[in-house]
């Protein structure tokens, strides 16, 4: 069972009536919530609008999360090449599918899908970074050569999305300590971490090693014999 219809309506009414005072850093509203049966189980999808980046972000909700504590939450940043096309240059799609599948088997949980392509630098710059990586630079060096920080993402919108859904505390599904720190700075209570570990392949191993070494991601990549095969033998 998902969020009951009367509660859905109350969330929508609260957003419709909400007026952000003055000129806040970010104002987030949920504008629509609908049932979404998926191959991972029964979900609901919530569509959000905000004043910070004016992009449309989504929450994929399994079970009733409203006014709940210790809700499993995955924050997933958009990756067109990985999520939609199945690129092997990153582990984004594998983490997304793993999170949806695991949450679909739990009592409740949320996948927040944030429109922050390329760790916040946008699609065009992400492909420019890929060009630089093709020349031998790692993912951090490529971003910096383009004039960006290693990670430009901001999680204020995610924090407000959780607040709009009246989630009281979360167990975050991540390998990224900076993501946890940012959410806590925006007022989200984190009571635990759920690792999302997927095996590397021959194309993304160096990328994952860079995330571990330079971005502090909590990964286990010591062995060279844990590589998975490229498609079509790679599990999806």
Assembly form of the protein = single chain
Decide which structural class fits the backbone: alpha/beta
The biggest beta sheet reads:
7 strands, mixed
CATH topology of the domain at 5-116 and 153-204: Rossmann fold
- Bin the strand percentage: 15-25%
Q: Number of DSSP strands?
A: 7
CATH architecture of the domain at 5-116 and 153-204: 3-Layer(aba) Sandwich
Shape category:
globular
- Ends apart, CA distance between termini: 27 Å
CATH class of the domain at 5-116 and 153-204: Alpha Beta
Note the run of SSEs as H and E: HEEEEHHEHHHHEHEH
Walk across the major sheet and give the strand order: 1-2-3-5-4-6-7
- What's the name of the CATH homologous superfamily of the domain at 5-116 and 153-204? GTP cyclohydrolase II
The averaged pLDDT comes out at 89
Q: Summarize the amount of helix as a percent range.
A: 25-40%
Given as residue ranges, the uncertain stretches (5+ residues, pLDDT < 50) are: 232-236
Helix count from the secondary structure assignment: 9
Q: Rounded to an integer, what's the Rg over CA atoms?
A: 18 Å
């Amino acid at each position: 069972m998902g969020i009951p219809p009367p509660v859905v309506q109350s969330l929508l009414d609260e957003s419709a009536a909400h007026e952000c005072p003055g000129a806040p850093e970010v104002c987030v509203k949920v504008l629509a919530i609908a049932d979404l049966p998926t191959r991972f189980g029964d979900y609901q999808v919530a569509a959000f609008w905000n004043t910070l980046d004016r992009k449309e972000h989504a929450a994929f909700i399994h079970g009733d999360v409203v006014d709940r504590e210790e809700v499993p939450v995955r924050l997933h940043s958009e990756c067109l090449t990985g999520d939609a096309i199945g690129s092997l240059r990153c582990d984004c799609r594998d983490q997304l599918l793993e999170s949806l599948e695991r949450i679909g088997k739990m009592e409740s949980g949320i996948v927040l899908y944030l429109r922050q392509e390329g760790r916040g630098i946008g699609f065009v710059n992400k492909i420019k970074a890929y060009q630089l990586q093709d020349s031998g630079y790692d993912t951090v060096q490529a971003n910096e050569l383009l004039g960006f920080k290693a990670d430009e993402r901001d999680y204020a919108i995610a924090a407000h999305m959780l607040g709009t859904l009246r989630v009281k505390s979360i167990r975050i599904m991540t390998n990224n300590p900076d993501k946890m720190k940012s959410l806590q700075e925006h007022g989200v209570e984190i009571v635990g971490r759920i690792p999302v570990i997927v095996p590397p392949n021959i194309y993304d191993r160096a990328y994952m090693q860079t995330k571990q070494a330079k971005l502090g991601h909590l990964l286990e990549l010591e062995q060279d014999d844990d590589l998975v095969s490229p498609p079509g033998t790679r599990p999806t």
